[in-house]
Automatic annotation (TrEMBL):
PROSITE patterns attached to this UniProt entry: CYTOCHROME_P450 (PS00086)
Highest taxon, organism lineage: Eukaryota
Name under which the protein is recorded: Cytochrome P450
Cofactor: heme
Listed GO MF terms: heme binding; iron ion binding; monooxygenase activity; oxidoreductase activity, acting on paired donors, with incorporation or reduction of molecular oxygen
Keywords: Heme, Iron, Metal-binding, Monooxygenase, Oxidoreductase
CDD domains named among the record's database cross-references: CYP_fungal
Organism whose genome encodes this protein: Cercophora scortea
Binding site residues for heme: C474
Length: 527
């Protein structure tokens, strides 16, 4: 019988081959041979390890750090083995965002509601296009500027709810913490338009509900990194019994979802039971809800495949509508709220700009005590427009990176052969601090938008990125601009402001950012 042949060296050879392959794939290729290897790296180890980019996100220093990196290394920086940050228009913003590169999974992880995707979270370009077509019209500039519901509800929010508080400050000489009121205004004015005056929130007067909401909305922020940047790792640890994120974070999200969906259900009843005209006249027409519901119905009507009926649904697409509408409120409250706080902060320190603005507002000549100016005329005021633009530039509410993924081999900022699957991102935090476009970028100077030459203005508009750009640009930008302008016009036509306590106005890092002190105390004096 032949004795079995043994190859004692085989396991060692296999192990060596695996190690060499691993060395090549995970170190040599990404660090030296990949098309990304020529791009300046944030740290030497960022060429083959994602730990550096995780670290700056975990430590909440990403916006500032990436800004410093661009100042040091130029328009493109490698943050990880397959991750680039860009800070240029040609080959950067234009290629990635105007070019429609898809969003990363991060949006789905962080902004999904009711376990149902919405306009913000949908990555698939076709699905996104379909959803966007449903709301483009209702959020267009002409619809926003001519909406009677918007005027009626915003007018009630400003004159009936906010003004009594400001008048009391003027009468008593007591300061007002305007920051939570700005969140409240942003929410009330948006939900008034979205769901109509009757169903919209009243956070300005109902402090208990407002505080309940902000507690559930903000208190989980310190844990965002684990759930949304490293979700698989976090879930894996949880299966082993190690919880990095307390259970109440998920419960807060569910509580907010449960709070919101009955509002949609009531809007559905209203739309089904009453004519549009009288509700439009009273300001109670749920404008966004009705538009989205109607579009879903129209598309269902045209679809060749009948939609499966779900008995548990009170009306078709209930959770898709709720997911989108709830996401709109999330998008509205913090962004516009923070922008308003910084705008008040700067105006309160600049009496000269305040009086110039008041002079401009008086040219509109409405009955300033009870009536909002005409939206189109207001929108055309140059100083007011400059003040809002400069605030959104200097204190960009969404300053964090907007990650996308390369869909094919492409050229980024002059670097050719960038393969598909690379995370590429830009951030308004850095774009808005380009000194060649915005000289002395740290200064709040509305004049820069008025005194600029046409060429300078074109360049500034190219780099102004508060609402993003391309097909995933903010759908609510026209609403946000008008809503901010309406309240600023009403307030500064009637009140003078000065700072009482502005400690901690520095902006927090992260995707969206407000004052670290979470407050701004102002004195209001009626003029
Ligand atoms: C000053 C106020 C606002 C600012 C600065 C702002 C900023 C932005 C930015 C930068 C994006 C792009 C984000 C990304 O791609 O990562 C965005 C998207 C979006 N915003 Fe806003 N936003 C504001 C107000 C609003 C309002 C009032 C709404 C209400 C409808 C809204 C709804 C959305 C939606 C749905 C998207 C996703 C669009 C898409 O992916 O197609 N935003 N916003």
């Amino acid at each position: 019988m032949a004795s079995p042949v043994s190859f004692p060296f085989l396991p060692a050879a296999a192990l060596t081959a695996v190690l060499l392959a691993g060395l090549y794939k995970f170190i040599i290729y990404p660090a030296l041979l990949s098309p990304l290897a020529k791009i300046p790296a944030a740290r030497w180890h960022a060429r083959f390890s994602p730990l550096y980019s995780y670290y700056i996100r975990w430590a909440n220093i990403e916006n500032r750090t990436v800004h410093d990196l661009h100042r040091r290394y130029g328009p493109v920086v490698r943050l990880g083995p397959a991750e680039l940050s860009i800070n240029c228009y040609e080959g950067g913003l234009k290629t990635i965002y105007t070019g429609g590169f898809p969003k990363t999974e991060w949006y789905h992880e962080r902004f999904i509601n009711y376990e149902t995707d919405n306009l913000f979270t949908t990555a698939d370009p076709k699905e996104h296009h379909h959803l966007k077509r449903m709301v483009t019209n209702v959020f267009s500039k002409s619809s926003i500027l001519s909406s009677s519901t918007l005027r009626i509800t915003t007018s009630a929010v400003i004159f009936d709810r906010l003004f009594p508080i400001l008048r009391e400050s003027s009468r008593s000489g007591k300061a007002v913490n305007i920051h939570p009121l700005n969140y409240a205004y942003a929410m009330d004015s948006f939900t008034g338009f979205q769901l109509g005056g009757k169903l919209g929130t009243n956070f300005i007067q109902n402090t208990e509900e407002r505080e309940w909401y902000t507690h559930h909305f903000f208190d989980g922020r310190p844990y965002l990194f684990w759930d949304f940047e490293v979700p698989n790792f976090t879930r894996w640890l949880q299966r082993l019994g190690i919880r990095l994120v307390p259970a109440w974070c998920a419960e807060s999200q569910f509580a907010l979802e449960d709070w919101f969906v009955p509002k949609c259900d009531r809007a559905a009843e209203l739309v089904a039971s009453q004519d549009e005209k009288p509700l439009q006249t009273s300001g109670d027409w749920p404008t966004i809800f009705a538009a989205l519901k109607q579009k879903f119905e129209e598309f269902d009507g045209k679809s060749k495949t009948p939609r499966p009926t779900d008995e548990s649904e009170l009306y078709p697409h209930r959770l898709e509508i709720a997911s989108n509408l709830f996401d709109h409120t999330v998008a509205a409250i913090e962004t516009s709220g923070n922008a308003l706080t910084y705008l008040h902060y700067e105006l309160a320190r600049r009496p000269d700009v305040q009086s110039a603005l008041r002079g401009e507002l008086l040219t509109l000549d409405p009955d300033r005590k009870r009536e909002l100016p005409d939206s189109k005329a207001l929108d055309a005021l140059p100083l007011l427009d400059a003040i809002v633009h400069e605030t959104l530039r200097r204190y960009t509410p969404v300053g964090g990176p907007q990650p996308r993924v390369t869909p094919r081999v492409c050229t980024i900022a002059g670097y050719e052969g960038i393969p598909p699957g690379v995370r590429v991102q830009a951030s308004s935090w850095t774009l808005h601090r380009n000194p060649e476009v915005f000289p002395d970028p740290g200064a709040w100077r509305p004049e820069r938008w008025i005194g600029a030459t046409p060429d300078e203005l074109t360049e500034m508009r190219k780099w102004f990125w508060a609402f993003g750009s391309g097909s995933r640009m903010c759908i609510g930008s026209h609403f946000a601009m008008l809503s901010i302008k309406l309240v600023v016009a009403a307030v500064y036509a009637q009140f003078q402001t000065s700072v009482v306590d502005a400690e901690g106005m520095e902006q927090t890092d992260g995707f969206s950012g407000g004052p670290i002190g979470n407050k701004l105390w102002l004195q209001f004096v009626e003029v």
